[in-house]
Design brief:
single chain, 437 residues, alpha/beta, Urease, subunit C, domain 1, TIM Barrel, 2 domains, eight-stranded mixed beta sheet, eight-stranded parallel beta sheet, 16 strands, 38% helix, binds zinc ion
Length: 437
């Protein structure tokens, strides 16, 4: 047996499978980084395996954050009380002054560390110098979906639009067959990237079997700009350019009409709901209940810490389960099972990896976390799913396993010196503050 063979026994295993099955006093057996058995603890053989006893804890899949800009963690709290468009102008000024491969690596390490400690095991990230994000992710032990950025104005990486396709192709070549990396193309948005460049990015991602992701229908101003420029709304614009489909991930989708929701559903396009970012930038309320009703695969994201000020997927889960109750007047608008699925299996589906990730089932990769329920806010516990959605928080995550390897143990990251990282990021403060003066 290999060294990674282990059995983890927990008070509850919340599988996040299709039926959202919960196993009381359950266990998960792992061999060579994959789950080989799941069931009641007495039924799982432990001979020869390392056994982790997690009594008083819930075992569940690692969270999948489907929209992030980890490197932007360097700018947390820098620009406040502005809506998206003027906010972006200031953000871009700071990024242009500060970002290079080294600072992008530092920002990625900071953001990805925050994510791992909170139980995120896979993240889709859109940022400059994506290969630095990959280096940080591999060193830390988190899976990452990222790739070439497309942006028509001069980029914060100093590159011009005419070399972006070559950059993106080089990214695909660099990460080929890496099980920790999902490569794709990530144009910024329909208002910052021309139809020609949106389509060339999609031709590349499709030819390489990757995903294609952009910000879409985030604000009313964006819808108005695209309507004025192209004579059609954002989702119709994407549809006309053949940029919807099961390989497409659209972040935000806050302002949609019924025809756009129908286009997303019919094409199998995936949506990332970012409730904290949408609230703080006053972007609006995404029509999540209508998207779910139409059969759209809705996933969850934090967006960057520059807009939401942290990368807390537990907050995203709780907001996804509560906001829409208030906006619709329907207390069952998004159920706890739906909210938890958005943060786990729906993300795996959007990555084309539902056979590998997103639930605790035999045959899948052993990406799972332990959540402490031996705490005042967890008792008495009637339903683990309800607890995870409404009462749990990132401070309850004690252990994180990725591909069967423990990355976080008792709240401590095993793959990096967090103290040194915090000091290095904090030391950037004067330079960053000066950049927007
Ligand atoms: Zn974003």
């Amino acid at each position: 047996m290999s060294r990674s063979d282990l059995v983890v026994r927990a008070s509850h295993v919340v599988t996040c499978d299709d039926a959202m099955t919960v196993i009381e006093d359950g266990a998960v057996a792992v061999r060579d980084g994959r789950i080989v058995a799941v069931g009641p603890a007495p039924a799982i053989a432990v001979a020869g395996a390392e056994v982790v006893e997690a009594k008083g804890r819930i075992l569940m899949p690692g969270l999948i954050n489907m929209h992030c800009h980890a490197g932007d963690s360097l700018f947390r709290g820098l620009v406040e009380n502005l809506p998206l468009e003027p906010w972006l102008q200031t953000v871009w000024k700071a990024e242009r002054a500060i970002l290079d491969p080294a600072t992008c690596r530092l920002g990625a390490e900071l953001g990805l560390t925050e994510l791992l400690l909170s139980g995120v095991t896979t993240v889709m990230d859109m940022f400059w110098f994506p290969q630095e994000t990959v280096r940080a992710a591999k060193a830390l032990g988190i899976r990452v979906a990222t790739g070439g950025i497309f942006f028509d104005p001069p980029g914060m990486d100093g590159h011009l639009a005419d070399r972006r396709l070559a950059d993106a192709a080089a990214f695909f070549n660099a990460v080929e067959d890496d099980p920790f990396v999902f490569p794709g193309c990530l144009p910024h948005g329909t208002y910052t990237v021309s139809p020609k460049h949106l389509q060339s990015a999609a031709r590349l991602s499709r030819s390489r079997g990757g995903f294609w992701c952009t910000h879409a229908a985030e604000t009313l101003a964006e819808q108005a700009t695209v309507l004025e420029r192209y004579g059609r709304r954002v989702i119709a614009h994407l549809a006309d350019l053949d940029l919807l489909g099961p390989d497409v991930v659209l972040a935000h989708c806050v302002h949609l009409d019924a025809a756009e929701i129908a286009l997303l559903a019919a094409s199998g396009t995936h949506v990332v709901h970012n409730p904290m970012s949408n609230l703080k930038l006053a972007s609006g309320f995404a029509p999540v209940p209508a998207l779910l009703k139409a059969g759209v695969n809705v996933t969850l994201g934090t967006d960057g810490a520059i807009s939401g000020n942290d990368l807390d997927m537990w907050l995203a889960i709780r907001l996804a389960a509560t906001l829409h109750k208030a906006t619709t007047g329907d207390a069952a608008a998004v159920t706890t099972s739906e909210a938890l699925a958005m943060a786990t299996r729906n993300g795996a589906r959007a990555l084309g990896a539902i056979d590998r990730l997103g639930s605790i089932e035999a045959g899948k990769e052993a990406d799972f976390i332990l959540v402490d329920i031996d705490r005042p806010h967890a008792v008495p516990l009637f339903d683990p799913v309800t607890h995870l959605v409404y009462s749990a928080g990132r401070g309850d995550v004690t252990d994180v396993f990725v591909a069967g390897q423990r990355v976080v143990e008792a709240g401590r990251l095993l793959t990096a010196d967090v103290g040194a990282l915090v000091a290095a990021a904090g030391a950037q403060r004067p330079r960053i503050a000066a950049a927007i003066v």
